Each structure stands twice: as C-alpha cells, then as structure tokens.
Amino acid sequence: MANNRPSKALFSAGFLVYLFLYIPLAVVVIFSFNDSKLNAEWVGFTWKWYEKLIHNEDILRAAGNSLIIAVISAVIATVLGTLAGLAMHRGRQKWLPALVLGPIAMPDILIGVSLLLMFILLNVSLGAVSIILAHVSFCIGFVALAVQSRLAGMDQSLIEAARDLGASPWQSFRLISLPLLTPGIIAGAMMAFTLSIDDFVITFFTAGVGSSTLPLEIYSMVKIAVTPEVNAVSTLLMLVTLTLITLLSKISPTVLRQ
C-alpha cells in the first residue's frame, strides 16, 4: 500500500515557506503594542497606539472611504459577476470567458495605468467614482468564477424537473437556481469586498485629491517612518481581511480550491 504521507523534507520546506510568510506579519502585530516610537527594540506593552487611531481624523476618513468604496464595489461586482457567471456557464461564446476573466490575469499596474488613461480620455474626474469603477472592473471576474464553480456542481435535473412541471424560466431560476447559487454568490461578494478594501496599486492610479483609502493612507505614513501607529492600523486591516477570508472558507470552501 502506497504511503500518501508527505516526506519530512517536503514538510520542512513547506513549514519554512509559511514561516517566512507569517513571521513579518507577526512582527507587525507584536510591535503594534510596543511602548516606543521606534521599532528597534521591545520596551513594554501598551494600547496607546490603538487609542491614537481613534482620534486620528485622516485614518478614520480613509477607513470610511475604503469601507464605502468596498461595499458599493462589492454590490455592483456581485450583480454583474453573477450574470457573467451564468452567461459563461450557459453560453457558447468562446470570447466571453477571456473577456470576463482577463482582468484576473493582468498585472495590477497595467490595469491601473489603462484605467487612468481611459478616465482622462473620457474626462472623468478622479475620485471615489473612478475608484469604484476600477474596483468593479477587476472584481467581476472573481465573482464570476465563484458563481461558475457553484453552477458546475449543481444538479441540472432539478431545473429540468421544474420546467417539466410547468415552471417558467424565471420561476425555475428564482425558486431552484438562485437558492442553490446563494453560497457562491455570497462567497463572491465577500471576495470582492476583501479585494476592494485591500487594493493599493489600482487605487493609487485612479484616486483623486480627497479620496484617499486606507491602503493609500498607510503608504503615505510609511514613507515618513514605520511607527507603531502604522503597525496598529496594519494589524486592524489584517484582522478584517483574515476574518473575511475565514468566513469565505466556511461559506464556500470549494471556491478557494478552484
């Protein structure tokens, strides 16, 4: 009988890779509680950097902008991505998957530059609207993938049975398909929200004056110095992201395996 357990060398290599990835994140979290303005050494435990964040108007404004933009972008991307997923599953157009999923494969900097040029040519003012349009453009593909993967595992005989019993196409979709698609739609919406609230590169090119998001605000703070206040806001953003990813894996684990 073949032994399917990973070898010690493979396990050790994987452990070192994850250690390399997560140690810097752990350092950021630990030093966000450091009672010193410098990150050179540990002085003592304190909550004061998180207390300062509550009274930092720039951080609060940027966090509010990020939340509003992420919610609106996720809602629009979920609606369009669900329709795109249905079209890819039922349609026979070979160009449709490339059109919908293209932004996923493209480098973020290429998407950001191209959208910036398009907004300039169309005389669209850079601000919250341009950021939302940019985020929707690259989030649609992720939602479509989540919906398409859910459709691939659906029993089509249920829809056919509903149609045989006299249900209209809208009734069969509303009563049969939509409830079965709901986990995939929710997973796609959460993925779109997470990608939007964390995005920096595309937002950097499409943001205007007065429309700074939390990643942009963190970047402007890091250019001066990596203070414990930067570590604190990064820790909170990391916590939000990990919470959403955990919920996403619970709602639709198959989406993360695609």
TrEMBL record:
Q: Write out the transmembrane intervals.
A: 9-33, 67-87, 99-122, 128-147, 173-194, 200-218, 230-249
Name the membrane topology term: Multi-pass membrane protein
Superkingdom assignment: Bacteria
Q: What are the record keywords, sorted?
A: Cell membrane, Membrane, Transmembrane, Transmembrane helix, Transport
Cellular location of this protein?
Answer: Cell membrane
Q: Which family does it belong to?
A: Belongs to the binding-protein-dependent transport system permease family. CysTW subfamily.
Q: What is this protein called?
A: ABC transporter permease
Q: Which organism is it from?
A: Zhongshania guokunii
